[in-house]
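ok new one. same drill as before - structure tokens go in, u give me an amino acid for every spot. 220 of them this time. try not to just spam alanines like last time pls lmao
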């Protein structure tokens, strides 16, 4: 009977050890703060092996993403989901009739999200030529042709807008800018080294005590 009890306790301990070491899940939140740039990166692990990644600075969230994580051989793999969200841009192009065989006019009307007109430089990507659009001269004059070119509208704090335009006729282009949001990490994989006690993970296995260490945030 004593031998059976010992065998029972041995099997119970073995089962407990196997369950503990086979557990491949993290919980709660890990953060890393850069002392140089004063930025904070936090990874929150949630149920079903999912995670949320947020990179924030003094002006708010700069970068974010989410996906599925896995743990194997002390490596933590963050696999980010593919971003399918498209930035909503309000762009309309109206063809204008004008008898000219040599050149065309591309007239731009650019407004912020509140309907106020914005004056800025527009860049033609084929040759990096910059055109100033303002109240005095809201149009760009180009040589009439069958070519198609891309014009970039770029303004601080707003999403960049690239518009393809052919040069075969006059056009009026109306653009309503969209406020810039955080950069989304899409369809990417990041691998970290996980500490044995699962309280830290870091980028460089040869330098685990450097600045890039994510530490578990203790809950009060």
């Amino acid at each position: 009977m004593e031998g059976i009890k010992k065998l029972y306790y041995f099997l119970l301990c073995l089962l407990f050890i196997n369950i503990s070491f086979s557990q491949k899940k993290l919980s709660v939140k890990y953060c890393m703060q850069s002392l140089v740039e004063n930025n904070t990166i936090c990874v929150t692990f949630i149920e079903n092996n999912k995670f949320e990644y947020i990179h924030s600075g003094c002006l708010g969230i700069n970068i974010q993403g989410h996906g599925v994580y896995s743990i194997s051989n002390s490596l933590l793999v963050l696999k980010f989901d593919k971003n399918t969200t498209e930035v909503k841009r309000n762009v309309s192009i109206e063809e204008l009739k004008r008898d000219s065989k040599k050149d065309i006019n591309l007239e731009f009307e650019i407004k912020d999200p509140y309907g106020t007109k914005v004056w800025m430089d527009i860049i033609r990507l084929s040759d990096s030529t910059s055109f100033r659009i303002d109240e005095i001269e809201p149009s760009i004059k180009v040589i009439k042709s069958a070519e198609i070119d891309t014009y970039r509208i770029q303004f601080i704090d707003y999403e960049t807008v690239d518009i393809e335009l052919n040069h075969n006729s006059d056009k009026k282009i109306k653009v309503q800018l969209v406020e810039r949001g955080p950069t989304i990490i899409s369809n990417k994989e990041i691998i970290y080294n996980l500490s044995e006690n699962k309280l830290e993970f870091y980028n460089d296995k040869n330098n685990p005590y450097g600045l890039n260490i994510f530490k578990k945030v203790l809950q009060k």
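The CA atoms of residues 77 and 191 lie 5 Å apart. and btw The chain has two domains: 26-83+185-216, 90-176.
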